[in-house]
Amino acid sequence: MQSNQNSQKRTQLYLFLSAIFLTNALVAEFAGVKIFSLEKLLGLMPAQLPFFGGQKLDFNLSVGVVIWPIVFLVSDLVNEYFGRNGVRKISFITAGMIAWSFLIVLAGTEVPPADFWLNLNQTDPTGNPFDINYAYTSIFRAGLGIIIGSLAAFLVSQLIDAYAFHYLKALTGSKKLWLRATGSTVISQLIDSFVILFIAFYLLGNWSMQQVLQVGLVQYTYKVSLAILLTPLIYLAHWLIDGYLEARGEM
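^ Probable queuosine precursor transporter, sequence as received from the core. Prediction below:
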């Protein structure tokens, strides 16, 4: 009876973590089309740090990157409790749902807009002419480029993250959770941060390679820094899950 209850709790835990993982990954795909200035958000002057090629480096990030640390935090928890198979399963399911979303959005940009919808939204709040169908198509089409790039980057980085996490866990056992969580992120996000930008904005967009490297470097730095800052949260989540499963001594 106790074993059956524990099995049900583990199943519920996996569903809950999977839902968080999938939701944040999907939202990041579509929100990621916007690049924002961290300096402007914080009310600071542009950093203008020296960069190769005579360029200047500012702290510009994709909106999708802001919530992406939640994805690799949940990925580490799934890896901790359900192993590489659990991570692979959720990764492939998420990739499938992202691909499905791609098809839905692609169809949405192709269907003809209703005249009343165009008329109701023909001006912006200041009274200037506004083509809402063009805006809709431009934003979501840009998002489609991110989806294509991220599908490749997502699957590769997630599988590498799972392998690195498992390898470090094999070396450290149940100790040093911070090492396997942060270490796997440092390795996997190096690939994710640059591959997605290269495909989405260089191959399928209008960015230069320097812009790809600039934004990729900032985003990678952000992800690694946040992974380190989130280490206490990983331990808290680990403690809460152990308490929920009533099996602190077995994990």
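The mean pLDDT is 80.
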